[in-house]
Design goal:
This protein is an alpha+beta fold. It has 16 helices and 16 strands.
C-alpha cells in the first residue's frame, strides 16, 4: 500500500547533540538533558509560537527513573505550553525513526500540521537493577517493625542479594532466540562469508569519513553541549582519526572468543546523544514562513528472524524501492545505521544475490549493488556511536543535510532493529538550492 495517499509532509529543520562515548561510568547528561539541549536552539531558530505545535514525539529505549514519558518531560522543560501533548515511542534501535514516522503519518492524514519529533538516549545511564532476591529482602526489611525484627532480616543478607542486573546487557540480548546483538552479527558474517579484514577496513573508513566530515564542517547539525562544571562538548568524541586496519586487527573478538570476527572496533559504540526534526505540512510551512530541507516520500517497517536482525534494512528498503519504482541508480545517497560493520556489509551483499532476493524478498532477481561512495559517506555508528533511541532521527537528519550540500534529489535512511525488524524512510530534497538548479 502506498504511503503517498495524503498531504505532503516536509522536514523543516533539525539538530542534534554530539554523540558522547560511554566510558564505563555515568555520563554527564541524562536522556532528558540531551533532548532539551538539542531542541532548544532548533526552536529558537524559528518564529512560530510554541503553542502552535500539535504534539511532541520522542523515541527512547531506556529513560531514567525521573523520566517517565520522557517526551513530556523534555517538552515542559523546553517551555512548550502545557496544552501541547507529548508522547514517547519505543521501537528499540529505530525509536527515533518511529517518532518521525508517527509525525509523518499524523500530518499526512490531516491530524496535525506541526510536530517536533526525535529521539534521545543516555546509554551510560542505563539502569542497574536489584535482582528479585534483593527486592524480596527489601520488602521483608520494610515490613519489619521492631529493631529485633530488622536485625533478623539483616542477618539474612547474602552476597547473592547484591548481584546486579545490568539492563544494558539484557537490552542488547534477544531472549526469544537467546542471542545478543553481537552474536547475530556473527551469524550474518558467516552467512555471507564476510571476513574480519573486510569488517575492519569498513570500520577504519567509517572513522576516517567522520573525521573528514567534521574537519570540513559537514556536521553543522551538531549543537554544543555544556555541563554544570564548565566543560563543553562539540563533536562526536568516539572518532579515531588515526584508526588503521592493523590497529583494529589487534582487538579480540567480543562475542565469540574462539572463532568470532566481531570486535568492539567493528561494532557501534555505546553512546549518549539526541536528535530532533521539525516536521510540517505545507499549510504550516506557508503560514509560519518556514524553510524546507526535505520531504518524506515513503516509510516502511519489516519483520524478520531475530537471529539475523541486522538484515532488517534490506527487508524495509525493498518495498519502498518497489512501490516507488526505483532502481539503485535512482537513489543518490544511503544512510544505513552501522550497528556492526558486518551488518551493513551483509545488507549490501544480500541485494547482490539472486537467491537471497528471490527467497527472502520476493524479487525476481538481485536488486544490485549499493555504491560504497554513496553509502554512509560521513561515517556512521561504528565511528560516532549508536545511542539506540536517537539513531533513527539522526540518520534522517544527516541524510537531509547530505542531500542539501550535494544538491542531490533523494536518499534512503534505514536501520536494523533488535528483535528482528527493519525500518526505512525515503527522503526527497526540497531545498531552495535544488529548486533553483532545476529551474535553471
Amino acid at each position: 500500500m502506498s504511503n503517498e495517499c495524503g498531504r505532503k509532509v516536509y522536514i523543516v529543520d533539525g539538530s542534534r547533540t554530539p554523540q558522547l562515548k560511554s566510558r564505563g561510568k555515568v555520563g554527564p547528561f541524562s536522556a532528558a538533558d540531551l533532548a532539551v539541549a538539542a531542541a532548544k536552539p532548533l526552536l529558537l531558530r524559528h518564529n512560530f509560537p510554541l503553542e502552535t505545535l500539535d504534539e511532541v514525539i520522542l523515541g527512547c529505549m531506556m529513560p531514567g527513573e525521573r523520566e517517565a514519558n520522557i517526551a513530556r518531560v523534555a517538552a515542559l522543560r523546553l517551555g512548550i505550553p502545557q496544552n501541547v501533548p507529548a508522547w514517547t515511542v519505543q521501537r528499540n534501535c529505530a525509536s527515533g525513526m518511529q517518532s518521525v514516522d508517527s509525525a509523518y503519518r499524523n500530518i499526512r492524514n490531516g491530524d496535525a500540521d506541526l510536530i517536533l519529533a526525535g529521539g534521545t538516549e543516555s546509554m551510560s545511564r542505563a539502569p542497574v537493577l536489584h535482582n528479585h532476591t534483593m527486592v524480596d529482602w527489601l520488602g521483608d526489611f520494610m515490613r519489619a517493625r521492631s529493631i529485633g525484627q530488622k536485625l533478623q532480616v539483616i542477618s539474612q543478607l547474602r552476597g547473592k542479594h547484591l548481584k546486579p542486573i545490568i539492563a544494558l546487557i539484557h537490552g542488547l540480548t534477544d531472549d526469544t532466540v537467546g542471542l545478543n546483538m553481537g552474536e547475530t552479527a556473527e551469524i550474518i558474517a558467516n552467512n555471507f562469508g564476510i571476513t574480519r579484514e573486510q569488517m575492519d577496513e569498513y570500520s577504519m573508513n567509517s572513522h576516517h569519513r567522520l573525521a573528514k566530515a567534521f574537519k570540513a564542517g559537514y556536521l553543522e547539525e551538531i549543537e554544543v553541549l555544556y555541563d554544570g562544571k564548565g566543560n563543553y562538548y562539540d563533536h562526536d568524541d568516539g572518532v579515531r582519526a588515526d584508526s588503521t586496519v592493523e590497529s583494529l586487527a589487534k582487538l579480540r573478538p567480543a562475542f565469540d572468543r574462539k572463532y568470532g570476527k566481531v570486535t568492539a572496533g567493528n561494532s557501534a559504540q555505546i553512546t549518549d546523544g539526541a536528535a530532533w526534526l521539525l516536521v510540517a505540512s505545507e499549510d504550516a510551512v506557508k503560514k509560519y514562513d518556514l524553510p524546507v530541507m526535505a520531504s518524506i516520500g515513503d516509510t516502511q517497517w519489516a519483520g524478520l528472524d531475530p537471529a539475523v536482525m541486522g538484515m532488517g534494512p534490506v527487508h524495509a528498503m525493498t518495498p519502498i524501492m518497489q512501490r516507488n519504482q526505483l532502481s539503485i541508480d535512482d537513489i543518490d545517497y544511503w544512510e544505513i545505521n552501522e550497528a556492526f560493520a558486518t551488518q551493513v556489509l551483509g545488507c549490501v551483499e544480500a541485494w547482490q544475490q539472486d537467491a537471497y532476493c528471490q527467497q527472502k524478498l520476493d524479487l525476481e532477481k538481485a536488486m544490485g549493488k549499493i555504491p560504497y561512495e554513496k553509502l554512509n559517506i560521513d561515517g556512521g555508528g561504528v565511528s560516532l556511536g549508536h545511542p539506540v533511541g536517537a539513531s533513527g532521527a539522526r540518520i534522517i537528519l544527516h541524510l537531509c543535510k547530505i542531500l542539501q550540500r550535494t544538491n542531490a534529489k533523494q536518499g534512503i535512511a534505514s536501520l536494523c532493529i533488535g528483535g528482528g525488524q527493519g525500518g526505512a524512510v525515503l527522503i526527497r530534497n526540497e531545498s531552495e538550492k535544488l529548486t533553483n538548479a532545476e529551474a535553471a
